[in-house]
Amino acid sequence: MGAVFRVCGWLDREEYMKLREYAEYLGRRDGCSLYALRYSILNSPRLREALDYIEKIGGEFDDDSRKLVERLVEEYTTVFVDAAEEGFLLRSRSYLAPFLERLRSLGVARYSRTHGGFIVKPHAVIDAVRELEAAGLTVVDRTGLLRTGFLEVRFEGELRSYQREAVESWAGNSYRGLVVLPTGAGKTIVALYAMAVLRVPTLVVVYTREQLLEWSEKIRRFLRLGPGVRVGLFYGDRKDVAEITLATYQSAYRYVDVLRSRFGLLVVDEAHHLPADKFKLIASSVLAPYRLGLTATPYRDDGRHVELFALMGGVVYEKSLSELEQEGYVASFTVIPVLVSLSGDERARYRELRRRYLAYARGRTVKELVRAAAAGDESARRALQLLNDMRRLLAFSKAKLEEAKRIVEEERARGSKIIVFTQYVEQAEKLGKIIGAPVITGKTDKTRRRLVFELFKKGRFNVIVFTTVGDEGIDVPDANVGVVLSGTSSRRQFIQRLGRLLRPAPGKTAKLYYIAVKGTQEETNMKKVLSAIM
């Protein structure tokens, strides 16, 4: 007959009708009314709701019925969380679909017949748990990854006000989201403080080996780790997985199966790289429910920042360069646009390249050309090659090199410490010879790089020429003048380059010269970037 109970007190019509939603009337015995819980209620999450109401009106179960109900409450109001290959697996004897409908519509939860439950993507499991608990269900985490506050990790540095605000905003978003701060504003310190707040096993993904070693050094400086908390380095030939593991993007991608179910928190440095096809696999595969992305510029020209926001939790805190400057956290700065002209021969060559490019491009955007070229379109491939030839012609123009030499000589005379940013190795090496400065490229070995940086800090060198290796991923020595010779068509790259100059010092005003060729796409790009920044 199922779970039978009796109600001996008087019920008014409203109470009686409410009770009938949960139970069938069986009749009267010994001056009391007998009811049996409906089968649909016995086998649903509403069972707890029904029991609460029955207790409220004075209903009583006999011993056998009470044992049955207690067992069913546990079975039908409990959701078990396990790890699965594609994310978290949520299973219950209850029908969970109505409670996960919003997440299903977003494409982050789906029912799996194979597993007999719902697969929820790692970055959305906190939302799933919240919605199930709001429905009165009990969630039992059998992965251990949702648990917080159990590692012995303590932050021992000093925080700037905005760094504390950033972590508070992140914590208020269920420990998920992107913190957007300019280069040099202390994003790593934000992450270390966040790790000490959450105190769970953490995977930190960085872009280069140099960054990985810098993170390791800062952990030693700013975190006090308990005896059971180790730091593991996961890159190259080293594959040490520990409570805090530092991995490069490449190693995390290649060995994601080794790392996927070991961490509660995923920290992604230079997070704007994450939407790349292969790196995206890191965030979608690692089961860490808590996530922190760090970047100076989350927005991508290809629009894929939308994927970044979904994987990491959206932007939860942002502070601009101008705000930090006003608050005295970065040096004052000025950006100086410098326009130069092509020579007669260069101008004729540029016009011819542009004419041929427009003929092959046929009105298509660069994004459309890239897609068409990948699909085998020969005209698109030729157009992209011509576009590259145009960019190289502008970058290598004689007037640009002469102007860069002039600026460097003037700033040297003022005692400035100067970084020149270039896009091409050949251009960097050529300028390095002209101005007598060391050149750092992606192929420069670490020993020489450290030596150059040390001599720059000591004043033995006052100019360094960088290719794009200087844009991110390495700790560039303090400088107060920058010269952009090529590149910087994107807001992201510009902010990163400017940020290299902004370490505060008494009376310091940083300067960034932006050299572009007048009347070309370079001038257009320069105006677009500067209007977005200033």
The residue ranges in which pLDDT falls below 50 over 5 or more consecutive positions are none
**Count of DSSP E strands?**
25
Q: Would you tell me the structural class of the helices and strands?
A: alpha/beta
**Name of the CATH superfamily of the largest domain:** P-loop containing nucleotide triphosphate hydrolases
- The portion of residues assigned to helices is 40-55%
Give me the CATH architecture of the largest domain, please.
3-Layer(aba) Sandwich
Task: Report how far the terminal alpha carbons are from each other.
Answer: 76 Å
Major β-sheet annotation: 8 strands, mixed
Please, could you describe this protein's structure?
With 534 residues, the protein is of the alpha/beta class. Helix 7 crosses helix 8. The N and C termini lie far apart (76 Å).
Please give a quick description of this structure.
The chain has 534 residues and is α/β, with parallel strands linked by helices.
Topology:
Blueprint: E1 4-7, H1 13-22, E2 23-29, E3 32-37, H2 39-42, H3 46-56, E4 60-61, H4 63-76, E5 78-84, E6 87-91, H5 101-105, E7 109-112, E8 117-120, H6 125-134, E9 138-141, E10 153-155, H7 161-172, E11 176-180, H8 187-198, E12 202-206, H9 209-222, E13 223-225, E14 231-235, E15 238-239, E16 244-248, H10 249-254, H11 256-259, E17 265-268, H12 280-285, E18 290-295, H13 305-312, E19 315-318, H14 321-326, E20 332-340, H15 344-361, H16 366-374, H17 378-395, H18 398-413, E21 418-421, H19 425-435, E22 439-440, H20 446-457, E23 463-466, E24 481-484, H21 491-499, E25 509-517, H22 521-533
Parallel strand pairs: 5-9, 11-18, 11-19, 12-16, 12-17, 14-16, 17-18, 20-25, 21-23, 21-24, 22-23, 24-25
Antiparallel strand pairs: 1-3, 1-4, 2-3, 5-6, 6-8, 7-8, 10-13, 14-15
Helix pairs in contact: 7-8, 15-17, 16-17
